[in-house]
């Protein structure tokens, strides 16, 4: 076993019995590392950086879930241990280096060690999301998957700042994305459409939980400097609650849910 009695559970499940159609996910919400992996051989400061998690997202997801009385499913372990937003066959599932920082514990990883991370950390997260989708469907609701992520203000130190306050990521299914783009722009924000990443090439979580289930889905990427502080997260929780209420009350909702 990888996890021991001193480790946190792989998944944080918030409002598990809520009957709101929006299901919030956080693929990179946590930066925990199993005790057995000894911080992956990294200084503690590295685990506070963006390479280890999506800064600000865990608290924002909790706040938004409370405002909507919705369910949220958050991955607690660092993306450097295993990246829940990658397919099992992707090279980025367990990285040997990130943004120039080598990850010593990931070098020459054995098949058994890789399998432990998949079994104990990766699958419990995805299975929890699927079980929550099924629960909402049993109650006659059509779930709407809203994946929350955050991005760095600039791709690398010294490069041009990214102009977007928030990006909406999507693939071929534009049902939710179009409503989010409209509602977020009404908030006076600079909104990226498939920026700073593309939902076509990124967003494994959207594919496996949105596309695979045929339900509305989209990913929000929020610029990290806007949600670093508690005050910033409160502002964004209020904003996203307004946005989601606007989406849910829109005339296109029936099309959104029954396309």
Question: How do the helices and strands line up, and which of them pair or pack?
Answer:
Blueprint: E1 11-14, E2 22-26, H1 44-47, H2 57-68, E3 71-75, E4 97-98, E5 101-102, H3 111-138, E6 144-151, E7 166-169, H4 175-186, E8 191-193, H5 204-211, E9 217-223, H6 230-248, H7 253-258
Parallel strand pairs: 2-3, 2-6, 6-9, 7-8
Antiparallel strand pairs: 1-3, 4-5, 7-9
List the strand order in the largest sheet.
1-3-2-6-9-7-8
Q: What are the segments in which pLDDT stays under 50 over at least 5 consecutive residues?
A: none
How many strand units? 9
Structural class: alpha/beta
Mean pLDDT: 94
The shape is: globular
CATH H-level superfamily: Zn-dependent exopeptidases
H and E string: EEHHEEEHEEHEHEHH
CATH topology group: Aminopeptidase
Our Rg estimate from Cα atoms comes to 18 Å
Number of helices: 7
Strand content: 15-25%
Helix content: 25-40%
Distance between the amino and carboxyl termini: 44 Å
For the record, the count of structural domains works out to 1
Q: What does this molecule look like?
A:
The protein has 259 residues and is α/β, with parallel strands linked by helices. It has a single domain, classed as 3-Layer(aba) Sandwich (Aminopeptidase). Helix content is 34%, strand content 15%. Helix 2 packs across helix 6 (230-248) and helix 4 (175-186) packs across helix 6 (230-248). The longest helix is centred in the middle third of the chain and has 28 residues, at 111-138.
